[in-house]
TrEMBL record, chains A, B:
Protein name: LacI family transcriptional regulator
Alphabetized UniProt keyword annotations: DNA-binding, Transcription, Transcription regulation
Sequence ranges assigned to domain HTH lacI-type in this UniProt record: 5-59
Protein's UniProt keywords contain Transcription: yes
GO molecular function annotations of the record: DNA-binding transcription factor activity; transcription cis-regulatory region binding
CDD domains registered for this protein in UniProt: HTH_LacI (cd01392), PBP1_LacI_sugar_binding-like (cd06267)
Transmembrane segments: none
InterPro entries associated with the record: HTH_LacI, LacI/GalR-like_sensor, Lambda_DNA-bd_dom_sf, Peripla_BP_I
Organism listed in the record: Pedobacter aquae
One Pfam match: LacI
Coiled-coil portions: none
Amino acid sequence: MKKEITIYDLAEKLNISATTVSRGLQNHPAININTKKKIFDLAKELGYQSNKFASSLRKQKTHTIGVIVPRLNSLFMSSVLSGIEKVVNNAGYNLIISQSFEQEEKEKTNAITMYNNRVDALIVSLSYDSADFTHFNNFINKGIPIVFFDRVTDSLPVTKVVIDNFKAGYDATMHLIEQNCKSIMHITGNLTRNVYKDRYEGYRKALADSYIPFSDDLFITNDLSEQEIYNAVTNNILKRKQLPDGLFATNDSAAAYALTLFKEAGLKVPEDIAIVGFNNDFISKVTEPAITTINYPGNEMGENVARILINHLDGEGDLSLTSTVILNSELIVRGSSLKSKV
Amino acid sequence: MKKEITIYDLAEKLNISATTVSRGLQNHPAININTKKKIFDLAKELGYQSNKFASSLRKQKTHTIGVIVPRLNSLFMSSVLSGIEKVVNNAGYNLIISQSFEQEEKEKTNAITMYNNRVDALIVSLSYDSADFTHFNNFINKGIPIVFFDRVTDSLPVTKVVIDNFKAGYDATMHLIEQNCKSIMHITGNLTRNVYKDRYEGYRKALADSYIPFSDDLFITNDLSEQEIYNAVTNNILKRKQLPDGLFATNDSAAAYALTLFKEAGLKVPEDIAIVGFNNDFISKVTEPAITTINYPGNEMGENVARILINHLDGEGDLSLTSTVILNSELIVRGSSLKSKV
DNA sequence: TTGTAAGCGTTATCAC
DNA sequence: GTGATAACGCTTACAA
């Protein structure tokens, strides 16, 4: 293992001081242009690499951004991450990523790790069951910016990037109503999470506006795993005497899986039951029929989150002024819900 | 912004030296148990956080592992990452993740960034077009372990974790032949990548073993994007006088999309054309018919990669002894290929 | 069992 | 325009 090259090595060879080398490397305006050139040339020649630890230690800044998400293995989340990574990387920051596996406990330890790693900023999408948010207080007290996206909370004074889930839920439900559905189910996640709660409320409002009474029987909430969707469809919905004629599922995987199970049971989609999903994952395009869904641009959301943060860290833009950013989302109508040709 | 607590603060309050505090915090065996307790108690009380930069600077070790993958936004990759994150995190390491966006150039800059970040180890799945691997020499020369997974190369002396793509390709093709397919297409990616090359060779071997001549017309290679698959199916395959009666696609998304396009064109699957995909993504379960595929456990692969690395870093296990790890994969037969009920 | 002192590589401050 | 020096917070010989 060969020894690392430091600014002292460069300084010695050039017969100047380490200070000057440091300044030169950072393009300090007061340094003579020729000196700079000499420094850069030698640095390149010797393969000099700046030591980030020394620099971070000295500057008390890490150029690292922490990300805590519920899970890495969903298409939506990957797209968001992809967007974040792109922007953040271009701005010269690094990303430390961890998953809470949908558990508050893991989220807490992850937050501590991030704090110990002295991240310059934190990006969070909350776990399924997080109800207590004290693990973020460290950051807030120390002035480390946090941005929440998708799964957010109002109980913390931080920037949020979301879509209008209420409107999306309303639109999805209204669309089913317009397709003449009278008995519309809604399958969704934990109602303490804003995304699910808002969609649910949109669903209820659309029913109310259409004078369709809400029924507890038509509303299912679970953890949205493959297993739970299977249970809900096979052991619950399909066992009923009176089947629903519409389903609004809170994500496309659930919608696609339900669609598959319905068809296996001999039901026709959309004739017997019309389906609307959420997210516009690729999966919604390859079922038969293709699934009507809400376009939810994960990549764009990730890029927005990252951009807001970078602007703040680099001193442009004020995070506190833009405390909630709402991105566009819209209904995409496909075969799974189109009973009537309008 | 309140000042950080350091070991000196603890030392002062306890009237001992910083050295003792440092040792105590690390459970050094020579430190008196009561002293230790006092140290830990005070550390907790004051909310002391070890400064990783100072520690890294001093120890020349970062407890950080770098990951470079082609893209983050695929289900397979997310599963791998999820597996890596889980193991690595449990072992107290951090993850820095970056994507090459399938470009050698970006992969090179990512590698440099990782190197500058002084990662303790590197995990890589190669980009679509990487042909030159000199950007990994820094790591190799310095003895920083690298593990490749999925998209690997033989030209570097590093550990590799893969599945037997040749066998998988052979099995997939053989299955189609057994279903009486006579004209079997193969759609895959860049043949310089081991995964695609090996599957391709498995495909050819299965044909050869069955005395079916290979035909260039039945072989398509492209970048596997949605657009390219659309082109291949719509502007090429469907325009032929003589349609193929079998398709082996190198991933499930491509298979699912092709299946959808075939059906739109009025073809029947599997009667007119039988399809086999690859990966066993969730998407393969919700098409109609469901897609026969090769089970490729991303999560397991990620966990294996991470475990090998951690063992090595922690001094157990010798990386050089286990230079290629081959994980199991097997054919999962579903409706998309089942012409005959055997 | 504990302490002293040096050093990891950088950058901020002050001086010239 | 450039340099000397101290400091960031930790670990580790070496000493006691």
